[in-house]
Structures are given as C-alpha cells and as structure tokens.
Design brief:
The protein has 316 residues and is mostly helical. The protein is 67% helix and 1% strand. The chain has twelve helices and two strands; from the N terminus they run H-H-H-H-H-H-H-H-H-H-H-E-E-H. It has helices at 2-41, 46-76, 79-91, 95-117, 131-144, 146-152, 165-181, 191-209, 215-222, 225-232, 236-255, 293-305, and strands spanning 276-277, 287-288.
Length: 316
C-alpha cells in the first residue's frame, strides 16, 4: 500500500514539474518576443546587429525546448502544461508548428485507426458511400484533440484568435487520409453517389463551423488552405457536365421528334407531383396538364435541375 502511495506521489510531482517547466517556457517565450520587438526598433544600431546571431541561437534553443515540452504535454494530456505550451508557441510566432504537432501526434493516429477498421474501399468508378466513414473519422479526430480544441476556444486567453486547429489539424488530416484511402468517393463518374458524398463533405464543414465561437475565428477557418484543398477535391464541373447531358439529352430527344407530339398522361411533366398547380388549389381538378410532349419534357427537366438529389448550390 505504501509503495503504491509513493508511486502516486511521484506521479503527481512529475506532473507538477512538467506544468512548472511549461510555465517557465511560456515566460521565456514572452521575453524573447519582447526582445525581438526591441531588436526591430533598434535594428539600425551596430551593437544590436552584433547581437543578432546570439538572439537567433537563443530562439532556436527555446523552440526546441517548447517543442519537447508540447510533445510531453500531448502524451500526458496535462491541461495546464498544454495551455502554457500553446501560449509559448503564440509568443514566438510559431503557431503553425504547434498545430502540426497536434495533427501528427493526435489526429493522424486516430483517423488512421478508423480507416484501418473500415470495410475495404470500392474500386475506382464504383459507388462509394462516404458519409458514415467521414463522420467516424471526424468524430475520432475531434475526440483525439478535444483538450487542445477547448483551450484554443478560450477567447479571454487570446488563443482563439491565433489557433485554427479545426482547419489545420482536424479537417486537413481527415481530408488527406480519406482522399488517399477512398478515391472512388470523390469520382463524379457516378453522379448520384457523388452528390451524396459531396453533401456529406459540406455537412462536415457546417459541423466544424458550428464549433467556432468568434467571427474572427470563423473567417480564419474559411480562409484556410485546408478548407480550400478540401473543397477543391470535388470536381463539380464534371458533375455538372454529366447532369447536363442527362437532363438536356432527354429534353432534346423530345424536341427532335417530328411534328408536335401530344403529351401522354404518363409524360414526366404530367405525372403526379410533377404537374403545375394553380395557386391556392391542390392536386386533382386544379392541376394543369401539358398538351404537348416538348412542353411536358421541358417542365420535367426544370424540376429535375432543382431536385434535392441533383441540385448543388456551389454550382448554381
């Protein structure tokens, strides 16, 4: 019993030492930041210029120490140490390095584990339903760096204005790994599947944006290279071309018919749910049926363009 208590005490002491070390590094980082400020003000002075190599050496040594402290805090999941390390990275202007550490040490393994346990990928050109896997990967990524996300949401601490973990760690890693593991899901060759997968991708962006607490942070997220890369993977121009050929082809076939062909009751524009309805009246006596087949086909084509399984606002 006594041995167990001693181990617990040593663990607590080690954790406190880690927190104190991170706190010290944050203070040193703030001082180096001030030093850089004064260096910039006096850069024309000869003795300041002579100090440049020493300042750079100190900054490089500090960067290595902060990197090591952050790696340790990520392993132990110490909220206090993580907070100090994130502030230290902000002070020395190396926020992207901290975000990359969170991505590689926490998010990447979590997403990799989800993909490893997932069913085999579909062949290129085959139907691939991305939504469940996308959700699982995103959930795993968010859970893996939950402490870091919470710390960088703190507006009062100033971290919210500096960090963009949702884009640079979560979205970037999910996007990179998923695109490599499931290329068929991004292919517009199967338009119906492509539309569903693109919708799921946009839903993830909406879900991530819902976690952002300030307008400045939202602007940072939307301007991020990670989001741009994520949206560019979807070849909407090819999707539009395939849909256009399908919808316009049916209409052209009707237009090319010899003479004015009368529309049948089963024509696409005359079927239940596809007919025009006079304002204020329901289906039945109030329905307007098209007399000519080309007119019915044109109405059916227009309705198809705005169908929920076809329409995409990004190319409207």
């Amino acid at each position: 019993g006594g041995g167990g208590g001693g181990g617990g005490a040593r663990g607590k002491g080690k954790g406190k030492g880690e927190d104190n070390h991170a706190r010290l590094l944050e203070r040193i980082s703030s001082e180096v930041n001030r030093l850089r400020f004064f260096q910039g003000k006096g850069k024309h002075l000869k003795f300041i210029q002579q100090l440049e190599p020493r300042i750079e050496a100190v900054e490089a040594k500090l960067a290595r120490a902060v990197k090591s402290a952050l790696a340790a805090a990520i392993r132990t999941r110490s909220v206090v140490a993580l907070g100090h390390c994130l502030h230290a990275y902000t002070a020395v202007g190396r926020v992207r390095e901290a975000e990359e550490a969170v991505r590689t040490q926490l998010v990447a393994p979590a997403v990799r584990a989800v993909l490893k346990a997932a069913p085999p990928a579909a062949a290129l050109g085959a139907r691939e339903d991305l939504a469940p896997l996308l959700t699982s990967c995103a959930d795993a990524a968010l859970k893996a760096c939950a402490i870091e996300l919470e710390l960088t949401r703190d507006v009062q601490s100033g971290l919210a204005a500096q960090y963009n973990l949702l884009a640079n760690a979560v979205l970037a890693e999910v996007d990179t790994q998923l695109a490599a593991a499931r290329p068929a899901a991004y292919s517009p060759g199967v338009p119906d599947a492509f539309h569903r997968n693109h919708g799921a991708a946009l839903a993830l962006v909406d879900a991530l944006e819902a976690r952002i607490v300030t307008r400045a942070s939202l602007a940072l997220f939307r301007a991020s290279p990670a989001l741009l890369s994520y949206t560019k993977r979807w070849n909407l121009s090819v999707y539009f071309t395939l849909r256009f050929q399908d919808i316009a082809g049916s209409l052209e076939a009707e237009m090319d018919a010899q003479g004015l062909v009368q529309a049948g009751q089963d024509a696409a524009g005359n079927q239940e749910g596809g007919r025009l309805t006079r304002e204020g009246e329901g289906h039945g006596a109030g329905d307007v049926r098209f007399l000519l087949a080309p007119t019915a086909a044109a109405w059916a084509a227009l309705r198809r363009c705005w169908a929920s399984d076809v329409f995409t606002a990004q190319i409207a």
